[in-house]
Write a structure and sequence with these properties.
The chain is an alpha/beta fold and 742 residues long. It is built from 31 helices and 20 strands. β14, α16 (419-430) and β15 (438-441) form a beta-alpha-beta unit. It is globular and about 85 Å long. It binds 1,4-dihydronicotinamide adenine dinucleotide (NAI). 1,4-dihydronicotinamide adenine dinucleotide binds next to α13 and α16.
Length: 742
């Protein structure tokens, strides 16, 4: 037998040892080749009389197996069927292809010989499913990184190699549903307690223990192949508690996903329907739902963005290749306010010596105290030792003395949003900076090229746009000024990766990418309000279409005074009298007459409790609003959903046309991480590409424009893409990034 991804040997007692070890990879994943090898392995074990039992282990110190190869799955998504095949033939082929692992694992499980898994570390997704198809599992008790779990749901998939059938048969439907629906993983002790593994042992003894079990249990069978097998905790329709999975389970999932995540719905179906039939039928049911899930735009978008692109960008895929890696050891932050304090904290967390400057020592100390509060919380929760926290805090030096900047590899300016002030502090900082150091600005709105005019080295000047709260938000939007060099971009990406954030790279236009597109969501909410749609309907549909908050709640968080100011600025720029605009009049009434400026004042569109959380929409909103629509039938919900999502996507398309963004991955990841664009879509570009296809998207946007206004009208680029049959991923593939930075 010739296996590429397993080493295979048979000992003197006839116990075979298959050591999973994909060549050239640090971790095993289930590639096409691995699947072929597992098929051959199962056939050999079943047919070779010399083999009395099998132990499967891993040759990778990092773990057992991380699951399906999602990169491979992403590339082959949707492919494989010939054009002229009819639907039935296509489906049959798809089923056979998708059923291979289920069929093979089942053959292994019923081969009449004992099969054990020796799990040394991570066993996730298909990795755990392989282990679950073994009769016995021994896991390492000396590897703190060991995790077992079925995380498929997190990227829009469901476990398709028996996970939805074996885990509930092992630990009961209720327990299994939590792990599968939420994609939660478990540590070794928890897995032993639940019965997911049978035994724990030190790594060095795993294989020995597994072999000993195989020798002692020549007639091993899976519990579900024993006569009279019953699900632990029973099954729906027979046991009241288990019936909750199909009643409460549905309601709970709907309340969390609003029906936007087909994977969760299909997982519940697998659990319920699979529990009503023997395992062989259950496995076929699982494969059918797996195919249904995998074929949907949600799974394709989520795998591509939340897994593949996220990994690529987080490893620096947009970094120009040429300059050597830039090691940021010391950094300075100008301004110790909300943002500066957060930036100093994440720098210190990454081991960077940080000077935190403000106009008074007191303000600078206040910035450092922010970091202390976060670290104290970690210590009190047992997540960090006091010693480690002290070490991190000691890296931050609060100061008013700009000469302390000397030796910094990067400066991030986060003073008030004021061009003159930013120019002044840039000059002050550069007096102490080396020629090679990067000068970055965290401005959220001011064009970088303009700010760079104050710099003696505009080629080293760059936008480094963080999001609030810095310690929790994973994205940094890097903005290239006209003179920013490739070297500065590379250095900045190295810095962003060091502080463990995901960078996207955009060009310098007002509002850059994220602030500009995000604003369209709240603006559309305002349009609806002005049309007389009941505020609660607007908020509910906003959340139900997958946004993290309703548009009015978001506006409260940003500040209604800011919204009013921006609205007036825009009106002025467009030569319109803001006081004539109903939306400005309404905001002015809220902010200036009623003092309702949003969350920071404890009153805005919402009322707020002592904990700062919204309690209810302010009932007197309707004093000023004539509510004309106070019911939301399904067709209205659908229309409002489209208005919210299309409005944002149209702006994203404009950003592509104007050259603000140049890489489809940046658009998707930026939209999800910066402003929470419905993650089930895979991001704005994927929503247009996958959910609609550009041709249909353009037609629908035209309809929306005719019905609601020109803001929905597709731009010329979208029309051209529709005509040529292009997608954002074909027109703006990753390679374009480097050209933009050049
Ligand atoms: P903030 O008002 O909380 O802090 C600004 C800090 O700068 C204050 O502590 C102030 O004392 C200090 N400062 C003023 N003059 C200074 C000087 N000459 N030298 C040193 N420090 C000086 O403001 P925030 O919210 O932290 O914003 C800072 C920057 O970050 C702005 O450009 C803002 O547009 C941008 N930004 C803000 C975000 C937010 O959510 N607040 C998000 C992303 C960017």
């Amino acid at each position: 037998m010739n296996l590429e991804t397993f080493k295979f040997e048979i000992d003197g007692d006839g116990i075979a040892l298959a050591t999973f070890d994909v060549p050239g990879r640090s971790m095993n994943t289930l590639t096409g080749q691995v699947v072929q090898d597992i098929v051959a392995l199962a056939a050999e074990v079943a047919s070779n009389d010399e083999i009395k039992g099998l132990v499967i282990t891993s040759g990778k110190p990092s773990g057992f197996c991380a699951g399906a190869d999602l990169g491979e799955m992403n590339q082959s998504a949707g492919g494989g069927a010939a054009q002229d095949e009819d639907e039935q033939t296509k489906l049959k082929k798809l089923f056979d292809r998708s059923f291979v692992l289920n069929k093979t694992f089942r053959e292994l499980e019923t081969c009449g010989k004992p099969v054990a898994a020796a799990i040394n570390g991570l066993a996730l997704g298909g990795g755990l499913e392989l282990a679950l198809a073994c009769h016995y599992r021994v896991a390492a008790n000396d590897n703190p990184k060991l995790q077992l779990g079925l995380p498929e749901a997190k990227i829009g998939l469901l476990p398709g190699a028996g996970g939805t059938q074996r885990l509930p048969r092992l630990i009961g439907l209720m327990a299994a549903s939590q792990y599968i629906l939420e994609g939660k993983s478990m540590k070794a002790d928890e897995a032993l307690g639940l019965g997911v593994v049978n035994e724990l042992a030190p790594t060095s003894e795993l294989v020995e223990k597994a072999k000993a079990w195989a020798k002692a249990n020549p007639n091993a069978k899976a519990p579900w192949d024993e006569k009279g097998f019953k699900f632990p905790g029973g099954v729906p329709n027979q046991h009241p508690k288990a019936t909750q999975i199909s009643t409460m389970g549905n309601a709970m999932i709907s309340s969390k996903t609003y029906g936007n995540y087909p994977a969760q719905t299909n997982i519940l179906k697998c659990l319920y329907e699979g529990s009503q039939v023997p395992i062989d039928a259950g496995l076929r049911i699982e494969t059918r739902y797996f195919i249904d899930t995998q074929q949907r735009p949600e799974a394709k978008g989520m795998i591509r963005s939340l897994f593949v692109s996220m990994q690529e960008l987080s490893k620096g895929a947009s970094r120009p290749a040429a300059p050597a890696k830039y090691e940021v050891k010391k950094a300075a932050v100008l301004g110790a306010g909300l943002m500066g304090a957060g930036i100093a904290h994440v720098q210190a967390m990454a081991g960077i010596e940080t000077v935190l400057l403000d106009i008074s020592q007191e303000s600078a100390e206040k910035g450092k105290a922010y970091s202390k509060r976060i670290l104290d919380k970690q210590v009190s929760r047992g997540k960090m030792s006091q010693e480690k926290a002290d070490g991190i805090l000691s890296l931050i030096t609060p100061s008013t003395d700009y000469s302390q900047i000397k030796g910094a590899d990067i400066v991030v300016e986060a003073v008030f949003e004021d061009t003159e002030l930013k120019a002044k502090v840039t000059k002050m900082a550069e007096e102490h900076l080396a020629d090679t150091a990067v000068m970055g600005s965290n401005t959220s709105t001011l064009p970088i090229t303009g700010l760079a005019e104050a710099s003696v080295r505009p080629e080293n000047y760059i936008g480094v746009h963080f999001f609030s709260p810095v310690e929790r938000m994973g994205l940094v939007e890097i903005i290239l000024g006209d003179k920013t060099t490739e070297e500065t971009l590379a250095k900045t990406i190295d810095y962003v990766l060091k502080i463990r954030k995901t960078p996207i790279v955009v060009n310098d236009f007002r509002g850059f990418y994220t602030s500009r597109c995000f604003g369209t969501y709240t603006q559309e909410g305002m349009e609806m309000l002005m049309e007389g749609i009941k505020p609660a309907i607007i908020e509910n549909v906003g959340r139900q279409c997958g946004m993290p908050m309703g548009p009015l709640e978001v506006s409260d968080s940003v500040g209604l005074d800011t919204a009013l100011k921006i609205g007036r600025q825009y009106a002025k720029a467009a030569g319109v009298d803001a006081n004539e605009q109903p939306s400005s009049q309404f905001l002015a009434w809220l902010v200036e007459d009623k003092g309702r400026v949003g969350r920071k004042a404890g009153k805005g569109y919402y009322e707020y409790g002592d904990n700062g959380k919204p309690t209810r929409l302010w009932p007197d909103l309707s004093d000023k609003l004539e509510v004309k629509v106070d019911e939301c039938p399904p067709e209205l919900k659908e229309e409002l959903t489209k208005r919210f999502l299309f409005r944002q996507c149209i702006e994203v398309a404009r950003c592509f046309e104007e050259g603000v963004i140049t890489d489809a991955r940046d658009a998707d990841i930026g939209s999800i991480l910066a402003w929470g664009f419905a993650p089930y879509t895979g991001g704005c570009a994927s929503y247009m590409d996958l959910k609609w296809g550009i041709k249909a998207f353009v037609a629908e946007a035209d309809r929306l424009a005719d019905a609601h206004g020109e803001r929905f009208r597709p731009n010329a680029m979208l029309r051209e893409m529709a005509e040529k049959g292009e997608t954002f991923y074909s027109r703006f593939p990753p390679a374009k990034q480097e050209k933009a930075a050049a």
